[in-house]
Design brief:
elongated, BirA Bifunctional Protein, domain 2, two-stranded antiparallel ribbon, alpha+beta, seven-stranded mixed sheet, 2 domains
Length: 335
């Protein structure tokens, strides 16, 4: 393939240029020429990857990554060699001077997104509350109007903890949604309520580019008199624009959830298609009754948003699994 030959020629030319450089300044020029993100030859190769056919892309992508990795490694090795040679040949080296500080880590992009969510919702007047990640069936299902025969309660769709169940006297599981926190909040407080809860949830989903068996959600709840769906849609639209910018496109689709009625799916424009980022709706009267609220006197809305998917959109990450692979090359981009 001509594309693979281009990768091979690129690697050979880059290696020759690296070996031919004798100073740090010359190596820097080589780096800019072959690895520069704006005008370097590496960017030209990226264009070739995009021209490959669907069948060729896996092989072409692998060859591109190998060429880039090999050239980068050889450049770093050459830079290190020149640095050591320079230090050993310098007669006025002062061992009392402070050394170079080791590289420091950075806040994980998901953690950074959570912090931004907390700040934004605080501006909208929502208080942040916490809740346990290990829950009983009442808070995870019963109080949320999810009946025993609902598919969401299937043991194969949840992480039940057998040992804890024996100790606690009933089924215990890793929470499958942060909606459990809204139940605990309403049990402990009278209306009005305006809270958000951010944290991990667990579902045995098949891992792919947009799904993980552990991910983060932001649950929001507002309960008062005369709360409307219009307020819910306005809040979510303003939140999305505040975090992702004024050009983000959000849409709402009718849906069904046991704990809200009416219910909507919240989608975000992703390239030429749409990606679901959460669910929302008006709190079902049965949920109010389960926590001791009078549904004839109060109304409210609730929403749950996938934090990783907002993070992917914000940082232009194409695969949710990258956040949890602990690949330093990926994480260094957020330093």
């Amino acid at each position: 393939m001509d594309i693979l030959n281009a990768f091979r020629e690129y690697q050979e030319a880059a290696t020759a240029a690296i070996e031919g450089a004798s100073t740090a300044e010359e190596l820097e020029q080589v780096r800019i020429e072959f690895l520069g993100q704006k005008k370097g030859k590496l960017r030209e190769l990226q264009g070739l990857v995009g021209k490959a056919s669907k069948e060729e892309k896996p092989l072409v992508g692998k060859a591109f990554n190998e060429a880039r990795t090999n050239v980068t490694a050889r450049l770093e090795q050459r830079i290190s060699g020149l640095s050591q040679h320079s230090q050993s040949s310098t007669s006025d080296f002062d061992p009392t001077l402070p050394g170079q500080l080791p590289p420091l880590g950075a806040i994980h992009p998901v953690t950074r997104t959570i912090a931004n969510f907390r700040e934004l919702m605080g501006r909208f007047g929502f208080r942040v509350v916490e809740g346990p990640e290990i829950e009983d069936e009442r808070h995870n299902f019963d109080a949320l109007n999810i009946p025993e025969d609902h598919p969401a309660r299937d043991p194969l769709d949840n992480f039940y903890i057998a040992t804890a169940a024996k100790t606690a006297g009933g089924p215990i599981l890793l929470r499958s949604q942060t909606s459990t926190v809204q139940i605990r909040t309403m049990e402990a407080a009278k209306p009005p309520v305006r809270i958000v809860s951010l944290g991990r949830v667990y579902r045995p989903d098949t891992m792919d580019a947009t799904h993980s068996c552990m991910f983060h959600q932001m649950e929001g709840l507002m309960v008062d008199t005369n709360v409307t769906m219009a307020q819910l849609k306005t809040l979510l639209s303003l939140f999305a624009r505040s975090f992702l910018g004024p050009d983000v496109e959000i849409r709402f689709r009718p849906s069904f959830f046991p704990f809200t009625e009416p219910s909507v799916e919240v989608d975000m424009k992703w390239g030429d298609s749409w990606m679901e980022v959460g669910g929302a709706g008006m709190v079902d009267p049965n949920v109010f009754r389960a926590v001791g609220y009078d549904p004839d006197k109060v109304s409210g809305f609730a929403f749950g948003l996938g934090i990783e998917r907002f993070c992917m959109k914000h940082y232009e990450v194409d695969d949710i699994r990258r956040f949890y692979e602990n690949d330093v090359r990926f994480l260094k981009q957020f330093a």
